[in-house]
Amino acid sequence: MPRVQRLSDLIEIQAEHAIYYGFGGLSSIGLGGFLIYYQGSGMFKPLGIIFILIGLPLLYIAGKALWKVKDVVGVAVICPFCETKNELLSKPDDDFPCEKCARMVPIANGEVMPVQQVRCGFCNELNYYSDKTEALLCEECNHEIPIGGDDDRPTKSIPKAYMLIDDEGLYELILVKGGRKEEDLISALQHMLALNRNQVKQMLEELPVTVLTGIPRKKAELLKAQLTMHDASVEFRPMEEARH
Fold first, then answer.
1. Are strands 233-238 and 85-88 parallel, antiparallel or unpaired?
2. How many CA atoms, within 13 angstroms, populate the side-chain half-sphere of residue 39?
């Protein structure tokens, strides 16, 4: 599944470039001015001019990075589950996770598909599904919720091998290794953990690292599947507290 580019991701990347080049440019110009002002003769004057000439294009690159963000026009996609406005760089071609509720927003022909509501017969929790939903587990109690069909579509069901009804233990999700799709993984972790880009990058430098703790098995499996799509090596295991 291709990674959906969000407007916030572009703004953060361009801001990093602007800070990096802007700081380098100002430092270079400041050093050049210092050499010219306090050591105005000999070899220090031409050296100061060189530093200033280096700093000017760096400031230009920083300004260009900020200006690029100004010209970008995002596309607002409303999540049908929580009604959050997701700002994307372009119209989505495939499902993508909502920035707030992390549910997969169903997309068909570039448009958001309508969702329907159904209550779990075990815990009465409200759940959502669309025509693209192949199987539905209750978000609260993990029981299977049969999705009723019509004359043209049979009722969908979940194979017993994938049902998580009796497992009420808590698990921890561990990111063991990154992968080649680092940008995709960073984006996925940002939205999954509500962290900024620098925090995620620092996390990836300390692998293996525990991503989440105290989560049910169903959620651990779903999150593992999401991260595995981005070439990451992920595992989950029962928490020590859950074993006693």
1. unpaired
2. 12
Q: What is the pLDDT of residues 153-174, one digit of tens each?
A: 444 544 443 344 445 678 898 9
Report in angstroms the alpha-carbon separations of 16 from 9, 12, 69: 11, 6, 12
Using CA atoms, how far apart are residues 239 and 187, in angstroms rounded to an integer? 27
How far is residue 117's CA from residue 50's CA, in Å, rounded to a whole number? 66
Spatial separation of the C-alpha atoms in residues 204 and 226, rounded to whole Å = 16
CA distances from 227 to 9, 35, 223, 236 (A): 18, 51, 6, 12
Bridge partners, 109 (sequence order): none
Give residue-wise pLDDT tens across range 94-121.
Answer: 888 888 888 889 999 889 999 988 888 7
Q: Which two tokens stand for residue 230?
A: 């981005």
Q: How far apart, in whole angstroms, are the C-alpha atoms of residue 32 and residue 6?
A: 39
- Token representation of residue 58: 């760096």
The answer to whether the CB of 10 falls within 8 A of the CB of 69 is yes
Distances (CA, A) of 233 to 76, 183, 184, 213: 32, 15, 14, 17
CA distance 239 to 132: 34
Distance CA 85, CA 77 (A): 6
Cα 72 from Cα 27, distance rounded (Å): 29
Peptide bond into 208 cis (omega under 30): yes
